[in-house]
Design goal:
alpha/beta, 7-stranded parallel beta sheet, binds nicotinamide-adenine-dinucleotide
């Protein structure tokens, strides 16, 4: 408890899944959290669950909304110490069936959303004397799978964007790390597997040795990366994948 006391944090993609678990987990550790998403129903559940969380609708693919999100946080709480760029989505298709709209859509949310989070978050972190950025990559930041090439391209780029931010702003005591989850049971992946798969640990182990992850298991690592416990870590690809990439 209280590993994030006095910290002020933004979490994007906080209306569901891993972002929601991270927002709740950080609030439980004492942080004040601005939870952002386009999913207003998800945000409403969050604000009623924890008094340290305030919510704000924000489309991460829109520069002016991300700039306003950071300004809102500083006005409301006086500073920013932690920026968690979690919003993202996956549309699967074979490469030859991937349309420009599909490709651009994932670039705009998964990559440009993280770019805006860094671009507008960094000056606020500089004003508060430093801080921690956690960007959501994926095991697909490092390894490919069939039929998700556009998504994989965005997640590979997020890892290198993160490393670039890490080396550029270490002088300002700003750290940036890329959390790389394996398969985690959230609405994003539920449509890819049938109910039987979620009930069958032996099947899951063929795919990911420790079985499907939970949002809370990823949030625990994000909280560590947000906290001063990880103070020597920057520019890292932090793989949290239940052994997925070890197979
Ligand atoms: N679930 C997995 O297996 C898995 C694995 C590796 C990486 N990831 C990544 O983890 C992150 C979180 O995904 P999740 O699994 O929690 O999925 P999720 O669908 O439960 O949550 C994603 C959230 O992002 C929000 N979002 C989407 N577009 C947005 C936009 N333009 N602006 C603001 N918010 C937007 C959605 O509304 C949703 O609330 C994503 O970046 C995803 O790519 C997921």
């Amino acid at each position: 408890m209280n590993r994030l006391a006095e910290k002020i944090a933004i979490v994007t993609g906080a209306g569901s899944g891993q972002g929601k678990a991270a927002a709740l987990g950080m609030a439980a550790e004492g942080a004040r959290v601005v939870a952002a998403d386009v999913n207003e129903a998800g945000l409403a559940e969050l604000s009623s669950a924890a008094e340290k969380i305030v919510t704000k609708r924000c489309d991460v693919s829109r520069a002016e909304e991300m700039e306003a999100l950071v300004a809102f946080t500083e006005e409301r709480f006086g500073a920013l110490h932690v920026m968690l760029n979690c919003a993202g989505y996956l549309r699967a298709a074979p490469l030859l069936e991937t349309t420009d709209d599909m490709f651009d859509g994932m670039i705009n949310v998964n990559l440009k959303g993280v770019f805006y989070g860094c671009k507008f978050g960094v000056p606020a972190l500089q004003r508060s004397g430093g801080g921690s950025i956690v960007n959501w990559g994926s095991v697909n930041s490092m390894v490919a799978e069939p039929d998700i090439s556009a998504y994989t391209a965005t997640k590979g780029a997020v890892l290198m964007l993160t490393k670039s931010v890490a080396v550029e702003f270490a002088k300002d005591n700003i750290r940036a790390n890329c959390i790389c989850p394996g398969a985690v049971r959230t609405p994003m992946v539920e449509s890819f597997f049938d109910e039987g798969f979620f009930a069958d640990m032996a099947e899951q182990r063929k795919y990911q040795p420790l079985g499907m992850g939970t949002p809370e298991q990823i949030a625990d690592v994000a909280i560590f990366l947000a906290s001063d416990e990880s103070r020597l870590m920057t520019g890292s690809a932090v793989v949290v994948d239940g052994g997925y990439t070890a197979l």
